[in-house]
Amino acid sequence: MTDRADIEPTQPRGWRRLSYTYHCGWVDWGHALPDGALGLLSKLKSQKADNDLLNSADVTLNGKPAFVIGYGQEMGALGIRVSARRHWVVQKGLSQAQLESVGLAIYLSASFDFENLQGTFPFSLVAGGSSFSTEDLVSNVIGFYSAARAISQDRMRTLCGEVSVDESYRIWDEHTPNGFSEHKNRTTTPVLFPTQYAPSESEAPVFPAALSSIKAARQGENWARLKSRFLDPGVASGRIPADILSDGSVRIRRGNARHERPTQ
What we know:
Blueprint: E1 18-21, E2 25-28, H1 35-46, E3 59-61, E4 64-71, E5 74-77, E6 80-83, E7 86-91, H2 96-118, H3 123-127, H4 136-148, H5 153-160, H6 165-175, E8 223-225, H7 233-236, E9 242-244, E10 250-254, E11 257-261
Parallel strand pairs: 3-9
Antiparallel strand pairs: 1-2, 3-4, 4-7, 5-6, 7-8, 9-10, 10-11
C-alpha cells in the first residue's frame, strides 16, 4: 500500500510513485504501469496461453471454438504470497475491439479477485489494510489503457491532471491524514477531493473520456471465468474435450452428447 512518503519524487529521475490528479483522484503510478495488461492483451491477441498444456485444450464456449489462458494478479511479502490467478475461456476469432472489451473485463474481474483476497486472513497481513484502497482500481484502469492505447505515463499524468508535489501533500494532510485504509473504493470511479489546482476555469474534474472508451464485455458473451477457477487437467491437456457455458460451468463432450461435469 502506498503512503505519504511515496508522494516525494525519487532521485535522480524524479519519478513520483503517488500523486493526486484533478480528474483521476489519487493515482498509484506503480499500479498504473502497463506491464500486466500488456501480457494479458498479448495472450488474447495470439489466442495462446503462456502454458503449453493449456494451448492443447479442446474447448468451446457456448458451442463456439475457444481458447484458454491463465491470468491473475499477485504479490508477496513476509514470506506470504497472494495470488488470484485462474483460468479464463475466450471465444476465438474476435475483432480487435472485442478483444479489448474482453481484456478490460478480465482485467477488472481479476483486480476485484485480488482486492477481495487481500482483505482475507492471512493475506491481509501482507496487504496491511490496502484492500480496495482509494487509488487501487482507478490506477489499474489507467494501467490497462496505457497498454491498450499505448499511452505513455507522462501523457497519462497530463490527461489525469497531475497536481504539484506540494498540492499532493496538502490534499493528503487535509483529507487522508491516516492513509488510504479508511477511504475504501470498490468502483472504478475516482474519489475526488477539493484542490486548489485546475487545468482551466472551464474544465470540470471528470474522468477523462480517453480512459472510458472501452466498454467491458459482459461475462458469458464471448468470455467466461471458470467456476472451478482452474480447468481439470484432462480438459487442459486436450485429452477430454469440453464445452464451457456462460456461467463458467464445464460440460464434457462425449460423442454428440454433453454431460455436465461438477465444478471443483
